[in-house]
Amino acid sequence: MATIVIDTKTDKNTKFILEFIKxxxxxxxxxxxxxxxxxxLGQIMKIQKTGKKVSRDTIIKNLA
Length: 64
Prior knowledge:
The chain is an all-alpha fold and 64 residues long. The chain is built from three helices and no strands.
């Protein structure tokens, strides 16, 4: 199974693409603003992951 994310510029294009994929028997949905933010945050976290362990104190110090 593969997932495709498409960022359209207009509602008209969004409706057209959703109609097309439903006609060919593929599931699709429009993400809410929160779902889009969560997806993008996950992508950033994946890119920035180092695998290094950091102490709680270091994290708190950097957040302050």
